[in-house]
Amino acid sequence: MGEYDVVVVGAGHAGCEAALAPARMGLSTLMLSITLEAIAMMPCNPSIGGTGKGHLVREIDALGGEMGINIDKSFIQSKMLNTAKGPAVHSLRAQADKELYHTEMKKTIENTPNLHMKQAEVMEILMENGKASGIVTRTGAIYNAKTVIIATGTFLGGRIFIGESAYDSGPNGMAVSVYLSDSLKKLGIPLRRFKTGTPARIDGKSLNYDKMIVQHGDENIVPFSFMNENTGENKIDCWLTYTNEVTHDIIRRNFHRSALFTGEIEGVGPRYCPSIETKIDRFKDKERHQLFVEPEGLSTDEMYIQGMSSSLPEDVQTAFYRSIAGLENAEIVRPAYAIEYDCINSLDLKTTLESKIIENLYFAGQTNGSSGYEEAAAQGLMAGINAALKVKGEEPFILDRSEAYIGVLIDDLVTKGTDEPYRIMTSRAEYRLLLRQDNAADRLTEKSYKIGLATEERYQRYINIKNDTEKEIARLNNTSVSPETANPFLKSIGSASIDKKETLASLLKRPQVTYDNLVEIDNERPQISYHSRVQVHVNIKYEGYIAKQLKQIEKFKKLESRRLPKDINYMELEGLRLEAREKLNAFKPDSVGQASRISGISPADINVLLVHLERMRHGGKYNL
Ligand SMILES: Cc1cc2nc3c(=O)[nH]c(=O)nc-3n(C[C@H](O)[C@H](O)[C@H](O)COP(=O)(O)OP(=O)(O)OC[C@H]3O[C@@H](n4cnc5c(N)ncnc54)[C@H](O)[C@@H]3O)c2cc1C
Predict the structure, then answer these.
(1) Residue 617 confidence (pLDDT) above 90
(2) Which DSSP helix (H) or strand (E) runs through 210?
(3) Given this model, what pLDDT does residue 614 score?
(4) Ligand 1 within 6 A of 469 CB?
(5) Beta carbons within 8 Å of 267's beta carbon, 6+ residues apart
(6) Rounded distance between C-alpha atoms, residue 364 and residue 498, angstroms
(7) What is the DSSP track for 350-363?
(8) Which end of the chain is more exposed for a tag (fewer CB within 10 A), N or C?
(9) Candidates 118, 373, 381, 425: which one to mutate for ligand 1, based on the most atoms within 8 Å of Cβ?
């Protein structure tokens, strides 16, 4: 039925990015989905971004991915989180109109040259000479491919749990993926069960808004995509309410009817998105849990109750939702549920997301044991890029932990592994002051331009904004103001006065001064983009901290650049502990840096390894 360079199984957040990247790099690409209604579907929270996740979206955008552009087209409320803290954790989060998000992404897919989409359930991976070579669908269609990417999310062996009721299904009542798991197992790819859950959707007309606390979006909205300046206005509000002792009591009295506590659900759930019954069980002393009521879109009355996922029976759900202020008359339009699904062990993947077990077979998204739209999209993009580069016979594209949150995400998955759905957090990134959401283009766009993904337009925009930023930083460092000019301003913001001329940059380092309020004493200020303004502010204000972190990265890069040949027999390396030899032999790390992050490998083991490497370099057994 067809020959392709890249075939992508799945059209979720991972599948879309995994298909767009190779197509944009000029390769023939086919994306398949059990149903095309699942294209960029948001089966859980109607939002993109948030702490750590916002960073991923900016990085996906800087690399030439689609998620940032798509949410700028379909957001209905936007907020910058953590603004009271330092710039490393400032995180953009936008509420999406789910239907519009899906429609816009589908349009982009349909209008992308080299990219074909088909509705079909993939049931088998074809093999040739021990390598993946295509797929077979449930209707018997065969599509040959040089590389295959699996991004099947929560559909793979999906099973739904609502109280005592359990049945095979994908999310949102969609068809489940029945056969592919067996095909993967036959190829020797071990699968395991993870689970996640979602809250009920409530009819907005049944809510009492005056009993909840309104949550407005930001006045000044900033774009997710580097390609945008202004993206429009907030169109909706959200609301805050809380559970109470009555809610907790209803749930506690029905623990025995939750599939989670009866042991019916085997799969491991996300620690950072626990169900309400887990929260009440785990935090017994907590009097109330906060809930956000979030509209799912402009053309629906469905409301998402964030913080209230559950697998309790519907009658119990109705009772506990109606015990909450503002939800007294709540009408459930879609019940909360838990879904269990098959996923692989991410330790079976290379840093390119290619399988270590089957060549030319890549995995991305929830299937790798992660949780979240943003985590899925980031992996999809990297799998798509690396599958394309493999077809082109070019060097793989790897981002390390000092270059991107995407690098942290993938390294955590393929080097440390995960025993529960993995979500990104800023605390996972050692070098987060350098991995801010405002400098993603600086860190990544040129790299993506060089591999043929970032467009000329995006690259030129990056160069222009970079030049503007550098010029403006230089201007502030070379422009001085007199005490007469500066002191009234400094007094007005509660900052100490000056007694001699100071540069604008040195004033900007003061806690009370921002690039925005400095305009009061800065008459020469040029018009520059939002993206430049943020960078000027941060690079001057945190100059010292940034320089310190750059030093730490130099050390990290040293170990990361010590490559390890794949044919080393670690069992022969004397002085290494047996556990370390076995682990290194099983894992075959790419570098000394990666070796140091494998669980069970100690700093002492790394020192012994470095000694062996030195010996090998001076005429040892392996070519180093
Ligand atoms: C109930 C539920 C709760 C969630 N809770 C959370 C949460 O608490 N926190 C959080 O961060 N995220 C949560 N998520 C979001 C989760 O991260 C998403 O599921 C995210 O969409 C994963 O993206 P993905 O691309 O990996 O997979 P999905 O978006 O699930 O997309 C999978 C795609 O693969 C296709 N597919 C599957 N099998 C086949 C096949 N055999 N042949 C052809 N096509 C196939 C499907 O049609 C679909 O297009 C939840 C999801 C669900 C369903």
Answers:
(1) no
(2) none
(3) 85
(4) no
(5) 193, 194, 195, 340, 341
(6) 56
(7) -TTSBBSSSBTEEE
(8) N
(9) 373
9 Cβ below 6 A of ligand 1: yes
Q: What is the mean pLDDT of residues 456-481?
A: 97
CB 270 near ligand 1, within 6 Å: yes
The DSSP string of 541-564 is HTHHHHHHHHHHHHHHHHHHTSB-
- Phi then psi dihedrals of residue 499, to 5 deg: -115, 0
Any atom of ligand 1 within 6 Å of the Cβ of 335? no
Q: Which atom of ligand 1 is nearest to the CA of 338?
A: 1
* Residue 197, ligand 1, Cβ within 6 A: yes
Residue 327: DSSP 8-state: -
Q: Residue written as tokens 């994908």? A: 170
Give the residue whose CA is nearest to atom 33 of ligand 1. 10
Given pLDDT bands bounded at 50, 70 and 90, which one contains residue 616?
Answer: confident
Q: How far is the CA of 471 from the centre of ligand 1 (A)?
A: 44
Is the distance from the beta carbon of residue 6 to the nearest atom of ligand 1 less than 6 Å?
no
15 within ligand 1 shell (Cβ under 6 A): yes
Question: Is ligand 1 within 6 A of the CB of residue 376?
Answer: yes
Give CA–CA dist 229/534, Å, rounded: 13
User: Does residue 615 surpass a pLDDT of 90?
Assistant: no
Six-digit token string for 448: 């993506």
Residue bearing the CA closest to ligand 1, atom 21: 373
* Cα–Cα distance, 465 to 459 (Å, whole number): 10
Mean pLDDT score of the chain = 95
Indicate if ligand 1 lies below 6 Å from the C-beta of 378.
no
- Residue 166's pLDDT is 96
Burial label for 586, CB within 10 Å (0-12, 13-18, 19+), is exposed
Q: Which atom of ligand 1 is nearest to the CA of 175?
A: 47
Q: What is the 3-state secondary structure (H, E, C) of 130-168?
A: CEEEEEEECCCCEEEEEEEEECCCCCECCEEEECCEEEE
Q: Residue range 69-91: average pLDDT?
A: 96
Give, as one character, the DSSP assignment of residue 173.
G
Take atom 11 of ligand 1 and give the residue whose Cα is closest: 372
pLDDT single digits (tens) 33-65: 999 999 999 999 999 999 999 999 999 999 999
Ligand 1 touching residue 32 (CB < 6 A): yes
pLDDT digits (tens, 9 = 90+) for 561-575: 998 888 889 998 888
Q: Is the CB of 137 under 6 A from ligand 1?
A: no
- Distance, CA 152 to ligand 1 centroid (Å)? 7
615: Cβ–Cβ under 8 A, 6 or more apart, which residues?
Answer: none
The model's pTM is: 0.96
What are the distances in angstroms from CA 494 to CA 388, 408, 490, 497, 542? Answer: 56, 40, 6, 9, 20
Contact 287, 245 (CB under 8 A): yes
**Contact assessment for residue 346 and residue 383, using Cβ atoms and an 8 Å cutoff:** no
CA distance 317 to 199: 9
CA 181 – CA 266 distance, rounded (Å): 17
User: How sure is the predictor about 204, in pLDDT bands with cuts at 50, 70 and 90?
Assistant: very high
All residues at 6 or more sequence positions from 79 whose CB lies less than 8 Å from its CB, including other chains: 92, 93, 94, 217, 218
249-305 pLDDT, tens digit each: 999 999 999 988 888 898 888 888 899 999 999 999 999 999 999 999 999 999 999
The single residue listed with the structure tokens 């626990």 is: 274
